[in-house]
Amino acid sequence: MAKESRAKEKLTMKLEEYVIDVQMENIRETDAKDAYLCTKLSELGPTSVATDPKYYEVEVDGWLFWVNRETLEIISQGKAEPVYPEKIEVTNKNIEVYIGEGKVVDLKLTPNNASKRFIKYTSANEEIATVNNGVVTGIKEGTTEITIESTEDESIKDTCTVTVKAIELTGISLNKTETKVGVGKTETLTVTYTPSNATYKDIKWTSADRTIATVDENTGLITGKKAGETTITAISVKYPSVKAECKVTVELVLEIKDETTLYKFAQDVNSGNKYEGYTVKLANNIILNEGVIYSFDKDTGLVEVNKNGSKFYIGTGYKGDTSGSNATFDSTASKLGVYYLSSASQEETTPIENEVTLAEDVKCKEIEINNIKLKMWEPIGNGSNNFGGEFDGQNNKITGLYCIVKNYSGLFGKLNSKSKVKNISIDESLICSSNSYSGTIIGYVDTYCNLENLHSSKGITIGSYDVGGIVGHLQVYDNTTVTKLSNKSEVIGKRYVGGIVGQFYHTDMSCTDICTIENSFNTANIYGDAHIGGITGYIHRGHNAGSSIGKMCINNCYNMGSITGNEYIGGISGGDRSMYIYISNCYNAGTISGTEYVFGITTSGSNLDLIENSFNIGGVNAKQYVAGVSNYTKAINCYNAGIIKATTKSYVGGINSNYNWNYAPYNCHYIKYPEGTPTNGVGTSDNVAGISSYTVDTWKFNVLDVVNTGGQYYTTTSGRDKNCPVLNWEIE
């Protein structure tokens, strides 16, 4: 027994070696572990699959042991006395196995204790299937015969038939069904197989138009050749009916990497290269002027430019409001776009102009005032030569634009029809048009343009007419929708001044177009004279509009900035021309102040306009014609919780300032504050059907429940409750 114990001890040590090796070599596959176990046991002595296929039979120093192939449990079998098989029977005579798969040949040996060490296995065709220790492995499709015979007597044997099959590939898919690639650029498509263990995975790739894009027939590497569209197809070599496609758009791509390439791009456009058919991509964040702080003083109407403590001032044309101690510009407005060294003097100054070389062929103008040097920005598109392609900021940011021109001011001065601009933020910038069309991103947008995901913050935008936090003048046609625009930069202008768009304009609405600003917001303060709004200053709905059913819409938008002006001021819109202006699911939380025609939502007053599912919680202050929602626009499901204050009682309403019997409000509600100007639901009438008044204590409504129809536009987040919700995309 001592000898058997020593043999078992050897076996135990060998199994411990096996466990350590598996861990160190990181062997994970079950079949690989099993094969390695058989190798380690064979180092001790003859090893074979036992009568019970769950075990290996190994001879160590003349003693037989069974080792469980999974648990490594050792079963002692006693002294290794040879027991030869007298009869061999295969119990699974017909074996089906997939390529690469292994199956055990099941045997019945006579006598029962006969050892498998004394049998051998042979494959008639090892190109189809191999056999090792009784395990048959499929190599390629076909049929062969496995012979099992005694090593001591060749007449004792049996056979089985092995059929090797392939695992059929039933489907493939690509990692992309659509993609874009630049001319001369590459991208590799990848394949997912169904089932994942299919035998034949060879794929051939083809391009429907190799003049537009080629594809390596073996690897799926796409190369763009010229602008256009084509289809790349992946086809199974073994099963040609199994295929997948990817639509490939090849773009003319210009990549903007730094300020030099940005200036070069602008100068190219202004020299006549419209970049039509191009996609221009901003590869990185770019800083043009760093460390400059802009601030607007409504007492003087000046913008202070401050860098490291040095200062100068820029006129805005806005008359000071006597709110502070500096009365220099209280009665006489500063000149728009003019430089001043002091906020307490109307003496103008002229900056020193220099030319800065950015690269061998790229220069820009630089100004210097009071030791502050600023590179001037030349807008992309000057009114004569304009951008006509697609610009994708790729969610990057440009900081420090300093732009003062007569017309068409912004990152883009003017866009041609059918242009696209998306995914760009402008920060800490000053944008100024001394006349018209000033917007932080775009001064003037022509028809058919696509705008999405554009943002401005920590800057100031100035102009006279058509001044917007994002777009100065937005001209639309053919069911245009602009979406996901946000402004956090102060806006100062004279007429048609908006937090997002200065003037929302359609030349001819004698059609069925529905043009929309949606999912956008403003949180910055806005200053002007007339037609001023938190989202848009003015909506112009073209000629012959009364005979059509087209609409100009503002949907799912909000304003939180204070708005100050003279007349025609609205928390969302500052008025419109003609009919069919629709505002829905919007709210205002900013304070609105002016002289007359000042409203929580819009100054619209057409019989055929409509405001629905909208809410005002901002204070509204004016002399006359003042209300929580609008003038006399039809209001449905609208609410006012803002305090209304008027210096006269002329046309002052909790909902509307005036009343049109044909288009009466419906399901509208307001709070009648004791500290506010006593108001009726409508300025000219009390007890109007469809309007209900409440006290602060009985008020039971919140903004989110009203503007979030269907629960798909707004939500709450930290610091923003149900009375000040955010748009869903803001926290995505």
What does this structure look like?
The chain is mainly beta and 732 residues long. It contains 4 helices and 69 strands. A hairpin with a 4-residue loop joins strand 25 and strand 26. Helix 1 packs antiparallel against helix 2. The chain is elongated.
Name some characteristics of this structure.
single chain, 732 residues, mainly beta, 4 helices, 69 strands, 7% helix
Ordered list of secondary-structure elements with their pairings:
Blueprint: H1 2-25, H2 30-42, E1 47-49, E2 55-60, E3 63-68, E4 74-79, E5 87-90, E6 94-98, E7 102-104, E8 107-110, E9 119-123, E10 129-132, E11 135-138, E12 142-150, E13 157-165, E14 171-174, E15 178-182, E16 186-188, E17 191-194, E18 203-207, E19 213-215, E20 221-224, E21 228-236, E22 243-256, H3 259-270, E23 278-282, E24 286-287, E25 293-297, E26 302-307, E27 310-315, E28 339-340, E29 348-349, E30 352-359, E31 362-369, E32 372-375, E33 390-399, E34 402-409, E35 412-415, E36 420-427, E37 430-439, E38 442-445, E39 450-462, E40 465-468, E41 471-476, E42 481-492, E43 495-498, E44 501-508, E45 514-522, E46 526-527, E47 530-533, E48 536-543, E49 551-559, E50 563-564, E51 567-570, E52 576-577, E53 581-584, E54 587-588, E55 592-593, E56 596-599, E57 610-612, E58 615-616, E59 620-622, E60 624-627, E61 634-636, E62 639-640, E63 644-646, E64 652-656, E65 668-671, E66 680-682, E67 691-694, H4 703-707, E68 714-715, E69 726-727
